Amino acid sequence: MHRPGSSLDEKGLNYNGDAGGHLSASHARPGATLLLASKKASDDGQVRLAGREYYSEEGKTFELRLTGKIKQQLSSDPTLRPEFPSSLGLTQFIHRATEAALGKTCPAIMENRVLGVQTPGFTAAVRLGAELLKHWHEASIAWFGPVYFSAPCDDSLPDIFQAAGIRDVSQYHYWDAEQRGICLEKLLEDLERAPEQSVVVLSASAHCPTGADLSRSQWAALAQLMRRRGLLPFLLLPTQALCTGDAERDAWPVRYCASQGMELVCAQSFSHCFGLYGEAVGHLLCVLRRGSPSLAVRRRADRTVRSLWAQPSGGGAHVVASVLSNPAHLAEWQEEVKRIVERCRLIREVLRARLRLLGTPGCWDHLTQQRGLYCCTGLNE
């Protein structure tokens, strides 16, 4: 994979590996603890923090109260029978997941230009998206790149695309370590040079690993460039609602790109925001251009799913669909999510305050400007 300005064969960050250490801020608020694993990037020596799960004070994964309640209701529902869902997943879950990303009034939904597929987790959604991209433009001619990733990014992402046979992968500038913020000008310069029909992998919210997100005006400039240059956005939404506490606000970049008439791919996960760790609840969303053969894409997705995992599990998807379909449950879920987001914000404030008390040189306001479960501290080793 080529990094902006240099060849890149070394590994970057991997959030599935062993944690180098832990930072706990359990004193900030009783009830639950968000454990953050410190990670060091091999290229710049910067320490980054990655939130994995939400933990109780006993060190156990924290399950949302609503999630536990819905599981009990589903287990006692006599109308639910143990059976395999279809290869593309549970219909109700797909509808609700699609609306969570695009909104209920999206024109693409009304025009039947949207394909949704339930997947066993976020990684599976990315992999399926990569597989579909190989014949996105021409059914008879395979496409193998280029795909552009942010620098830095979770290094599992290019690995997933390469496993799908797409080996032409590069990076675009994203994080400025000196300014401790997004370098939009360099980002746009890199993508301006990208060949037509390139795929650009973008974080819709809670960028991994920096926690720094594009503003709405920056998204508008980026979307304009992608439309003009004929680039396809592959949007990542792995922790919807855990960035700002508002699911609709977190999905705004996806909705904006769709509103501009852009075709796009979006990988979603509901494992984090519903506390469904280990149940792997993912979704792949494809917004097709007008006049595209949607039935052919659906058939290709069905064939690919059958060769990769046959069909997803139903348990976690039933929970998510039940919550998103019931206004009372939805309101309760939103309140629980807001408390988790507030917890993350308090941890950031505690870290910034302690760095100031220690007299650590520099400005640390970027710590509280970043959002979500990831953080680029700006500290070296």
From TrEMBL:
Molecular function GO labels: L-aspartate:2-oxoglutarate aminotransferase activity; pyridoxal phosphate binding
Where do the Aminotransferase class I/classII large domain residues begin and end?
77-380
The name of this protein is: aspartate transaminase
SUPFAM superfamilies registered for this protein in UniProt: PLP-dependent transferases
Q: Which residues form a coiled coil?
A: none
Q: Is the keyword Transport in the record? A: no
Q: What class of enzyme is it?
A: transferase
Give the gene that encodes this protein.
got1l1
Listed Gene3D superfamilies: Aspartate Aminotransferase, domain 1, Type I PLP-dependent aspartate aminotransferase-like (Major domain)
Q: Which GO terms describe its cellular component?
A: cytosol
Record keyword Transferase present: yes
The record's subunit annotation is: Homodimer.
Q: Keywords in alphabetical order, please.
A: Aminotransferase, Pyridoxal phosphate, Transferase
Source organism of this protein record: Betta splendens (Siamese fighting fish)
Concerning its family, UniProt says: Belongs to the class-I pyridoxal-phosphate-dependent aminotransferase family.
Identify the cofactor(s): pyridoxal 5'-phosphate
Task: Identify the EC number(s).
Answer: 2.6.1.1
Question: GO terms for biological process?
Answer: aspartate biosynthetic process
Question: Which Pfam families would you find in this protein's record?
Answer: Aminotran_1_2
